[in-house]
């Protein structure tokens, strides 16, 4: 790994924005998170990958706002994260062909952002802890499965699956909708009950779809 000029520039921009948010919000403990993500991002090339990394930075505001039940700021954070999720693929196609690395980075960053969001909501009493655990498992278990395949000498093709994309959208829409309703002082119980049914079903469907997509992993060539 070596430093990327674009990655260094993007990291500096994100670091300044993150420091400004931490100072204005008073959540200075999260400054270390921005520094850590910026340090990693400096080695990541590609405009699209830097757009994707925005959601990793946004994990800190999501956790802070969710824990403190500041639903207005949280709704804005989720909206910005959703925009970056839509933009990174467009940017990849505009400036360069989508890469294997980008395909692997995207779900990892989605998992970091969504995990911080739902943990904060669970700690703040907005979501039941079991639902937060299901959502975290939606991202964690596929990542562990991919790591296991690599560990045994196989290289799965890193790509989006239909149900993976659908479940991510459903999670952001339902959880984001609960936050929006709370921000507007509206009753979110109906939406929360829908989330408690739809999200576990979508998670199971994601596992099935991912297992089918990875049924023929490619073996890593041996050195020499």
Account of the protein in words:
- The protein contains eight helices and two strands, in the order ααααααβααβ.
- It is an all-alpha fold and 224 residues long.
- The protein has a two-stranded antiparallel sheet with strand order 1-2.
- α2 runs antiparallel to α3.
- It is globular, with a radius of gyration of 18 Å.
- The two termini are 22 Å apart.
Observed structural traits:
224 residues; mainly alpha; two-stranded antiparallel sheet; 8 helices; 77% helix; globular; disordered C terminus
Summarize the SSE layout with pairings:
Blueprint: H1 5-25, H2 31-41, H3 47-68, H4 71-95, H5 100-123, H6 129-151, E1 154-155, H7 162-183, H8 189-213, E2 218-219
Antiparallel strand pairs: 1-2
């Amino acid at each position: 790994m070596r430093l990327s000029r674009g990655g260094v520039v993007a990291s500096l921009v994100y670091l300044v924005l993150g420091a400004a948010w931490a100072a204005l919000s008073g959540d200075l403990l999260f400054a270390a998170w921005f520094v850590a993500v910026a340090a990693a991002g400096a080695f990541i090339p590609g405009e699209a990958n830097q757009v994707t990394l925005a959601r990793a930075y946004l994990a800190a505001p999501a956790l802070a706002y969710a824990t403190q039940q500041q639903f207005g700021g949280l709704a804005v954070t989720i909206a910005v994260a959703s925009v970056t999720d839509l933009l990174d693929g467009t940017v990849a196609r505009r400036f360069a062909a989508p890469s294997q690395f980008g395909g692997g980075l995207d779900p990892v960053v989605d998992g970091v952002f969504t995990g911080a969001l739902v943990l904060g909501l669970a700690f703040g009493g907005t979501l039941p802890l079991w639902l937060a655990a299901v959502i975290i498992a939606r991202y964690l278990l596929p990542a562990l499965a991919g790591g296991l395949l690599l560990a045994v000498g196989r290289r799965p093709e890193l790509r989006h699956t239909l149900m993976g994309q659908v479940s991510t959208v459903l999670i952001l829409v339902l959880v984001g909708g609960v936050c929006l309703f709370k921000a507007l002082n509206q009753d979110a119980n109906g939406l929360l009950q829908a989330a408690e049914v739809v999200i576990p079903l979508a998670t199971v469907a994601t596992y099935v779809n991912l297992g089918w997509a990875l049924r023929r992993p490619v073996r890593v060539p041996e050195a020499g």
